[in-house]
Structure formats: structure tokens, C-alpha cells
Amino acid sequence: MFNLNTHVARLLMDEPFFAILSRQIEKRSSTAIPTAGVRINKETAQFELYYNPEFFEKLTDYEKKDVLLHEFYHCVFEHVTGRLPVNDKGEKEMTMMWNIATDLSINSHLSHLPDGCVKPGVGPYEDYPEANSAEWYYARLQQDAKDNPQFGESMGEGQFDDHDGWEEVPEQVKAMAKERLKETVKKAAEEASKNSNWGSVSQDVRKDIMSRIQTKVDWRKVLRYFIKTSQKANKQSSMKHINKRYPYIHAGRKTSRTAKIAISIDQSGSVSDQMLNAFFNELNKLAKYAEFTVVPFDTEVFEDKVYTWKKGENKKWERVLSGGTCFDAPTEYVNKRNFDGHIILTDLMAPKPKSSKCQRMWMTTSHYAQRPYFSTNERIVVVD
User: Are 94 and 108 part of one and the same domain?
Assistant: First the structure.
């Protein structure tokens, strides 16, 4: 049976931008889906590509590649993460018309799709121009369906991929997936630009992608995202929750989510009081989601100054030391303990540390972010 995973590298050999994106998207074989479709896993907030091996087996290599690119474009254009039209009630709503609009906007950029796919200039859409946004096509489809009821009845013919499940994902999970994907798209775009090789991505789409990733990121949202993706489920027995298997005989299970986050603060003097004040003000708002352990360090961790900040507590930070910097010190401290995430506030002016056993994020100012002492694939967030 056809296994897409063994063909992806070959199919995307001349598509470096999408090759990087593809590595972050899980491919899952399923005969329950007629063709292919990309979705967000509600538990992990990861993108997943489901494909029918029998459908793919019948396609040429050119067609296989364009089906892959079609699904990846849905991710890049944020069709899966909440870019939806608003209905009369002011609510975002997934409709057949919106599904077609997204496909029309994508298929303008692909020339080897399977026969019968919706495409500007073909069939019911023969007078539709190419290379417009999903919103433009959506407005045009609405108008055409209003003017000609028969046109509305023919919509949906030629829509080959599966958009089921897009609207079922909780908004919080979509936000997590969107933030995670944005980081991947940024890396892929930077790599493509550096090597002057975007593959088949058109100039207009490149501009759109670059404008998305160059938008200033709100570090507060990134901080919340990091903490929520670090959370783990804790299950406890509770008589207030009904045991579905043995109701009123055994206690039910209560599930809560929390995270143990280490906050390592560089005491070298380059981390300003203004930055620390802004950061700790935000932590005050997030204390209900996590337990924070503040770890002051310079060339070593001063364990007698480490303190735990639990839910609901409203503590103010205080500067403890001032000296050089060694990132191995807080990394080793955190690795020896059961933390779910590690945030380091620093100027990045020290050698690259050892690997972290939990997810790690760096926070600094724009001045230092432009010239870090070491390179890393971990997230560097600007606090200004």
C-alpha cells in the first residue's frame, strides 16, 4: 500500500520552502478520508495531513506533489486556524462556499492538480481571475449565487480535498497551532530567502508570507502560549465527578491542567529593571495557570535565592546579584528537576548552553536579539 512518508522528500526535492514546512506536519494514512485533508490535532495542537493511500496511488508524481502543496497552502494561508468569514450574527462560520473560496485561492498557484479540481478560469469559474485571496473569491461566490440560484447548486463540484473538522477545534488550540506554525513558516521563509530558492512559490505569495512573519509579535501572547503548551493534565479522584463506568460506586476523575515553569533571570546587569517589571507584571496575570520557580543566576545559580511562586500569589521581583553569565548553570539546575518549561531572561551574551530536557524559550530586548552570541533553533522573544 502507498506510504506517503517514503515519497515526501523526493516529491518536494525542488520545493525547499515546503520541504521545511512538511517536516512539522504529521502524515497519517486513512481510508476513511476519500482524498486528503489537513487538520489540527485537538490534543497536541499539531497539524496533521490525512491521506487516502488508494487515492494517492493513482496519481502521477506531479499530481501527488500539487496535492501536497495544496494542503500545505491551507496551513500557510491560515485557512485551518480561524481565518473564517463572519455570518449575520457576527460569528465565524465554516461553509461550503468558504471551502470553495479557499480552494480557488490556492489552486491558482498550482498547475498539476488532478482532473476536475475547482480552479479559476475553469468550468463554473471560467470568468474568475487567478491569484486572488479567499475573501475575494468568497465575496464573488456570494454575489454569483445570489444572482443565479443554479450557480449555487453547482458549487462544490471539483472540490477534491477534505475540510471536515476545521471548525471543531477549540479556539485556544487553534491559537497554539497558529503560533507554532508561524515559527516554522518563518524559518522556512528565511532559509528560502537566504538561498534565493523558493521553488514554485510566486512573488505575490512570497510577499504575503513575508508580511505575515514580519508582523511584530506580542511577547505577552507568546508567553501565554508557551505556558499553556507546557501544561500537563493532572487527574485526581473526586466524588463530585461521576464515574461513567461505575456511577455512584467509585469516585470519578477530576482533570486539571497546570505547568511547572522555571524562570531563570540573568543577573549580569544587562537585563533592565524596565524589562523585568514588564515581565513580572505579566506573570502576575498567568500565575493561575502555572507554578513559577524564579532562578537567579550569573555564572552559577544561587540556590538560596531560588523561590517558588504558586498560583494566586502576587510577588514582586528583586535583583539579587550582578556579574558574568553562564547558561549552563540554570540549564543544569532545571534539568535535574521536574520542570515542564524553562524561560531565560537574558542579553544572550554567553556561549550556547547544553540541551534542555524541557521546552526552553529565551526572552531579551530587540537590541540583543539582533546580535545573539550563539545560534539556536529555540524561540527568542523580544520584550520591548
Answer: yes
